[in-house]
């Protein structure tokens, strides 16, 4: 019988997840039912949004959720053939039987790297573009702060804001990443938040205040940004990775939004249907012309999925965090 | 020589101000300069926004700021005559010499009570109306939560939301005030936040979630409202009286704005120029027809101004907090 290796949650993580919160379990895969396909994972996507999902009581004992790119190995569904590529939300495992209803077909564009095509032109890219242009109402000349700027969404947001003619400051955990944000992404300034309190270094880096804060962090970053916001400035909230810790400290400077008339809006990439056309046009052009780069951190093997997930919260990745499950190039 | 009684700040308050943070000082008033008028206070307005102002180092030793209605006692300014009524931002004192540049003329409408005319049809009313209709984009049928609903702005916001056809829940410090919000203001439900944690009682009072939260409190109220917000719900932030304490705890549930696509917007009454006409029309009609009531808590004598200011933070007032400095009816 076919088997699969699955990443299962053994217990509810407290704060940053621990390797012992997970196990890799080999399980039998039953024969396919009608309307199902058997998928073999190629790439699995590991993202901060998984942290709140594995914090829920009902997640214990279950396969850790997640999306990925996979190839059909066997099909009992009409119109889906062996060898086809699909995107799925089937969780962190190397093989799976899936009904085709939740799958999205994927056509390889060989002129782009696979991860660029999947993510920069997918949900990650649309988060960065839509969060800035839609939610954030970005205009040329804006003073823009992007937190977690070495991350998947942040590294795109910095580059897009620069391409749109803004003054851009990014934050990252270490001095090395902070340097990288200026050198590789083209940010005007960057701050390293483990070596110095964010509030001080952000104030020094943004002498003209902040018109738009693209927030991936929350917590101390949000507290640092609020007193620097310009009148009627906007905070577009993509993520609050700091708030996934169990013992989070809380945001203290929210009253600033009254004096400064700040607007804070949470968003996700599904909010930007009306931006899909300009997004694909502009992003494709920036990518193929080399004006915008997409970075990723790829770990090999399903066994390393827990390490990848934990690494998101310890600052391990530059750009998108991925698991390459099979070595095949597609 | 003329003298005036002034409320001066002796030291920076920590948390809720203390009577010993203030002194009432009698000072001489110099003769008028050209372009100045001498004002005799009738009413002084005591509001939560004063708390952060007296928390600043530069406020120590100064007259506590504040606005009021006053009568001109003597004039050396063209077009301003003895007996005229004006609104000023001259601070908490019984008499003052003021240049006329910062004054606003006031015409008495005898069919309205003085405080209704000054506040319900002034900045307080426009805060409630504009915060709901403009910032909050209130629609009939919305599920609306108003915190500090027995206060000046909150008590108007509850009534306006009811007049607009919404389900409305208000919060107040004590069970007595909580009852009053339902009985006098017409709220559907109310919660008393000193007797029970806000999160539990709010959840029970709003089974259909929250479309619009009119926030006067921040802190635990905001943390309670965030997980109850409906998708694309709005939080219109008028004040965060809980955050004026020095040892404020911080807001922990902000990540909810991502999953729930919440919009948070800080505002002030000066933001609603385009609503001035419908505001005056609707409010005047509601007030003269008796559909909307304006409540105030009036303490007599400039000596009681510190007590009034402290009372804002200990839940002493119902409606607008005022000092009546002179007994004259105008």
How many helices of chain A? The count is: 10
User: Which sequence of SSEs, written as H and E, runs from N to C of chain A?
Assistant: EEEHEEEEHHEHEHEHEHEHEHEHE
Main sheet of chain A, how many strands, which sense, barrel?
A: 7 strands, mixed
- Indicate the multimeric state: homodimer
Question: Can you walk me through this structure?
Answer:
Two copies of one chain form a homodimer. The first copy, chain A, is of the alpha/beta class and 330 residues long. Helices cover 26% and strands 26% of the residues of chain A. In chain A, the strands form three sheets. In chain A, strands 3, 4, 5, 6, 7, 14 and 15 form a seven-stranded mixed beta sheet that branches. Chain A has a six-stranded parallel beta sheet with strand order 10-9-8-11-12-13, with helices on both faces. In chain A, helix 6 (198-205) crosses helix 7 (219-225). The longest helix of chain A has 13 residues, at 123-135. The two termini of chain A are 27 Å apart. The relative contact order of chain A is 0.16. The model of chain A has no long low-confidence stretch (mean pLDDT 95). The A-B interface holds A 52, 218, 222, 237-240, 243-244, 248-252, 254-268, 271 and B 52, 218, 222, 237-240, 243-244, 248-252, 254-268, 271. Strand 13 of chain A pairs antiparallel with strand 13 of chain B.
Please give a quick description of this structure.
2 copies of one chain form a homodimer. With 330 residues, chain A is of the alpha/beta class. Chain A is 26% helix and 26% strand.
SSE blueprint:
Two copies of one chain form a homodimer.
Chain A: E1 3-9, E2 22-28, E3 36-45, H1 50-53, E4 67-75, E5 85-88, E6 95-99, E7 104-105, H2 114-120, H3 123-135, E8 143-146, H4 152-163, E9 167-172, H5 175-183, E10 189-192, H6 198-205, E11 210-215, H7 219-225, E12 229-237, H8 256-259, E13 263-266, H9 276-288, E14 296-300, H10 305-314, E15 320-324
Parallel strand pairs in A: 8-9, 8-11, 9-10, 11-12, 12-13, 14-15
Antiparallel strand pairs in A: 1-2, 3-4, 3-6, 3-15, 4-5, 5-7
Helix pairs in contact in A: 3-4, 6-7
